[in-house]
Amino acid sequence: MNFSLKQRTKNSVFIIAEIGNNHNGSKKTAFELIDIAAESGVDAVKFQTFTGLDIVTPKVKADEYKGWNVKGYAYWFEFLDSIALPLEDHLEVFNYAINKGLIPFSTPTSSEIVGFLEKINTPLYKIASMDLTNIKLLKSVADTGKPVIISTGMGTDEEIRKAISIFSKNELAILHCISDYPTKPENANLKAVSYIKERYKVLTGLSDHSVTNVFSLGAVALGGRIIEKHITYSRKEKRKAEHHFSLEPKELKLLVESIRTLEKGLGENKLIRTPDEDLNKFKYRRSLHLNKALNKGDRISIEDISILRPNIGDAPSEFDNYIGKELVRDIGPWTGLNKDMIKG
Questions:
Q1: Angle formed by the axes of helices 192-200 and 157-166, to 10°?
Q2: What percent of the chain has pLDDT over 90?
Q3: Considering only the top CATH level, what class is 5-266?
Q4: What count of Cα atoms within 13 Å lies in the side-chain half-sphere of residue 200?
Q5: CATH fit for domain 275-341, picks 3.40.50.720, 3.30.565.10, 1.25.40.10, 3.90.1210.10
Q6: Of 48, 52, 59, 174, which has the fewest beta carbons less than 10 angstroms from its beta carbon?
């Protein structure tokens, strides 16, 4: 599958449903979440491909990560392994997504995982915020030559600059991201979307970890062309990892519909008068009207002119140019004033 970020974002926002590990390690649940994504109208589904020891040392106790349901696991890597999609299920899951009209791809966590994803022909890659400075992994992904989307949670300008330099031969997008789950509104720092776009001259957007659609819509309004949002079948699911900051099916569908509506309304970076406004200006704009009958040779006084709808006379800005002017013909009351009615 050949894929181009530039082409996919040219005419519409690229919307990614982040399934992540909300399948709880179940292929069947992954299929169900793909169905939810397809029904919502998103463009792509993203997974996370890993083993626990790709991410954390074997010494880290499970209970060191507060807020996650790690009951029954002594170590964090054991919990991570329990929610990982088995490697042997990836190809079938990817093909299922393709058959649903979606673009499947994943976030790798090691060079070995990159090699695996190459074997199943992932069309693009996502770099997680935690790996913004993982030069070994970044180089492995860069070597594929495929498009790359990078999240910037916890990142600095210097870290982002170094990461960008590695992907000089890849199509690249940089997403604003806050590594806070869920992201509090006061921490969203949404203007960073514009900052990234202007500073780095790249495709940008938002990896949104909030439980509202507001910030994704704001990111689009600020010029973001890629929106990534975690999805779940229910935020009440307590067994596993990322459900608590994910969108449920109706919310996801509303997000897609809202983004598509917003896209229609963004328009151009200049003032324009729409065709509908051209029609409406006759009804809704005021103009100059004679408010009484006057005869040829009469001079127009201030009291003779009213500024009212409909817009059938000269603009109100011409008011002073009519005062004291002589009429060249008889004019009835409530007639729009025009220059051909006066001398000079």
A1: 50
A2: 93
A3: alpha beta
A4: 29
A5: 3.90.1210.10
A6: 59
